[in-house]
Amino acid sequence: MTVQGETPPNPPRLMPKYSLWVWLFGLFICCGLPSLIAYSFYEKYRNAKHSLQGPLCLQNLRALAAAQAMYSVDNMGSLPAADWMDASLPYLKKNVGAIGCPVARDKKNDDYGFAMNEAFVGKPMVVATSDGDTPLIFDSTLLSRNAVGPLSTLPEKGRHLQPDTDPEFDTWKNNVAFANGSARATQDRFVKP
């Protein structure tokens, strides 16, 4: 009951003053913090596909280089002609998936991502192995099956991420199989002046 001239008493508060801040802090803990953690993981592993499939691509290139060597033994020392992927299939046994780069491979569009060095198509293997560091099969911007091209078709940026302990020094490299049967990730362009 109020007396005339007196101010009515304040109604009782249902929530203390600081409850809005507690509610906002709880919202941050429940929604904001997990989002920040998820975003940091996304940033760290967004290129994981490339860094994990790079070694598989190298394995595929080694298998193809070995298949080329076996083909040359069976065909009087010469490398396959323009249908080099098809000619390599019998020598790959059950590893038919080796005829493409896993990063570039797209079964819907028949993208493979490997090309054979045009300088050695149908040539004797001896010519290719005379210089041990001669690129034979490599990552290429030519994506079709049985692609044949010059070394200038290596992807400009590189197709495979080579992670470093410091992300600032991560590099993109291309995988190359050489005539001597080795394969490695490289930043070299192999273009002679």
Number of domains: 1
Largest sheet: 6 strands, mixed
Overall pLDDT confidence: 79
Strand content: 5-15%
- Name the structural class: alpha+beta
Query: What would the principal axes of the Cα set say about the shape?
Result: rod-shaped
Radius of gyration: 30 Å
For this structure, the quaternary state is single chain
The string of secondary-structure elements, in order, is HHHEHEEEEE
Number of strands: 6
Short structural summary:
This protein has four helices and six strands; from the N terminus they run H-H-H-E-H-E-E-E-E-E. It has 193 residues and is α+β, with helices and mostly antiparallel strands. The chain has one domain.
List the helices and strands and how they pair.
Elements: H1 19-45, H2 48-74, H3 84-88, E1 114-117, H4 125-129, E2 135-139, E3 148-149, E4 160-162, E5 171-178, E6 183-186
What does this structure look like?
This protein is α+β, with helices and mostly antiparallel strands and 193 residues long. The protein has one domain. It contains four helices and six strands; from the N terminus they run αααβαβββββ. It has helices spanning 19-45, 48-74, 84-88, 125-129; strands spanning 114-117, 135-139, 148-149, 160-162, 171-178, 183-186. Strands 1, 2, 3, 4, 5 and 6 form a six-stranded mixed beta sheet that branches. Strand 4 (160-162) and strand 5 form a beta hairpin.
